[in-house]
């Protein structure tokens, strides 16, 4: 859910870049965005998606990035109950960074240097897609009796 409006989905098309975390965001960017994430004035962690959507959003992020932390988001919130919002946001930043670090590193590796491998991979994907599309069109022509 959005970091600026936790009742809306997180979206790349939102005009506010602080509303979302991208896989290309650094650890510092993730932490900065989470520090400004909308929560509420209650300084303890509970899970209540309707009553405390901002806090529940943070708990959900932490849980779904690392389901080994608890059996459910509700259990995780119980485990984190005594944390302040600042401490919760830092823990979430660590978890989200850990969950995106490998893919971010691979993205930077592919985009950062010689892109021969990336171009070759894209060309191979295009050839495979073309083969699949031709097979589909052949079946369509057969079904319509338009064999040529």
How would a textbook summarize the main sheet?
none
Order of helices and strands: HHHHH
Instruction: List how many beta strands DSSP finds.
Output: 0
Radius of gyration: 22 Å
Proportion of strand residues: under 5%
- CATH homologous superfamily of the largest domain? Tyrosyl-Transfer RNA Synthetase
CATH class of the largest domain: Mainly Alpha
How many structural domains can be distinguished in the coordinates?
2
Q: What is the share of helical residues?
A: 55-70%
Q: Which tags fit this structure?
A:
148 residues, mainly alpha, Tyrosyl-Transfer RNA Synthetase, 2 domains, elongated
What can you tell me about this protein's structure?
The structure is a single chain. This protein has helices spanning 27-35, 53-65, 73-79, 85-112, 116-144. By secondary structure, it is an all-alpha fold. It folds into 2 domains: 1-113, Tyrosyl-Transfer RNA Synthetase (Orthogonal Bundle), CATH 1.10.240.10; 114-148. Helix 2 packs across helix 4. The longest helix is centred in the C-terminal third of the chain and has 29 residues, at 116-144. The model has no long low-confidence stretch (mean pLDDT 92).
TL;DR?
With about 150 residues, this protein is mostly helical. It has helices at about 25-35, 55-65, 75-80, 85-110, 115-145.
SSE arrangement:
Layout: H1 27-35, H2 53-65, H3 73-79, H4 85-112, H5 116-144
């Amino acid at each position: 859910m959005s970091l600026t409006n936790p009742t809306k989905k997180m979206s790349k098309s939102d005009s506010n870049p602080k509303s979302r975390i991208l896989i290309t965001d650094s650890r510092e960017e993730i932490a900065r965005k989470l520090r400004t994430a909308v929560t509420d004035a209650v300084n303890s962690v509970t899970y209540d998606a309707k009553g405390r959507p901002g806090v529940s959003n943070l708990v959900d992020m932490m849980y779904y990035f690392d389901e080994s932390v608890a059996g459910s988001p509700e259990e995780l919130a119980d485990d984190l109950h005594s944390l302040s919002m600042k401490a919760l946001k830092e823990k979430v930043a660590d978890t989200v960074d850990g969950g995106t670090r490998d893919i971010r590193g691979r993205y930077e590796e592919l985009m950062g240097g010689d892109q021969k491998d990336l171009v070759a991979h894209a060309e191979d994907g295009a050839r495979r897609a073309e083969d699949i599309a031709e097979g589909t069109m052949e079946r369509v022509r057969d079904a319509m009796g338009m064999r040529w």
